[in-house]
Amino acid sequence: MDSQPVTLEHYFFPEISVNANPNWRPDIESKGKPFASVGTNCEPVSGEENLFEVQLTITIEDTEEHPSQYNVKLTAIGVLRAHKDLHDKEKNMAVTGSSILYSASREFLLGIMLRGPWPPIMLHAMPFNISPPVEEHALKKSKKVTKK
User: N or C terminus of the chain with fewer C-beta within 10 Å?
Assistant: First the structure.
């Protein structure tokens, strides 16, 4: 390949909601950590060769098991172009696009929460390159070499 395998054309946040939880107190923190639900979707853009739209949604809700100082709903959309020779385009675009959008969303949310009344939630890193099941990772058996 003579150029980048994936190019980010642009991204934006069409939905952003960060609400400080008025019932949260620092002593609640010991009950559990906030839980982020993350969803992704990747679709080719119709009529455009090698262009893909990736959507990522992050939701954090205050629950008894996972108390949260903020309730969050964020949607990020990215438009990415695949190199014409990139193999397995849909999978590679989904993994790369989701990774880019998640990273941008983490930093964006952190910046917003730093201005809030409670400590910010630091979202954990998230791998989007899902591996096949373990049984598909069978190790190749080495051949025994016997001397004659």
Answer: C
